[in-house]
Amino acid sequence: MGKLFSISILVLLFISTITPSLAKDGERHSFLQSQKPATPLVRQKLSHLRLFWHDVVSGPDPSAVRVAQAASANQSATGFGTLVMIDDALTLGPELTSKLVGRAQGFYALASKEESGLLMSMNFAFTEGKYNGSTVTILGRNTVFSEVREMPVIGGSGLFRMAQGYAQARTHSFNPKTGDAVVEYNVFVLHY
User: Where is the secretion signal located (predicted)?
Assistant: First the structure.
């Protein structure tokens, strides 16, 4: 019994030396270390991005491809259960030949049984000028037949690091025969 007690004391001493120190608030955090910014944070800027999103589902080189579909999606008027991966062009004007400034990369899922409601998850990955390599991340609900849809901006990278804001989508054109769509996006982003 004495040997077991000695071993228990040694184990407790060992554990107490490797446990994290107390944080300022008195809680233990082994995954958190507070740091001061290398440079002081500057005031946030508000940027307004006006872009045209080209969702091409037809032709020999589509930018939106169905990758999954629930068996019941064929029987659903809304296509509920369908998942589409996208790599859609982002241009300055509504024509696909307009200046390309980035790509909308991610997916949308038909997530509503009652209406044409999408779950959108995409990065606007910019390829032009000083924004080249920067992204804005949008995640939200898009009821495609509403005149204007609003989705949150939940983050970003590069020049849009720590971004927050919202995106408003408005259908510019939709071809019911092909399923191709052009959507105007007005994105309002707070960032450093």
Answer: 1-23
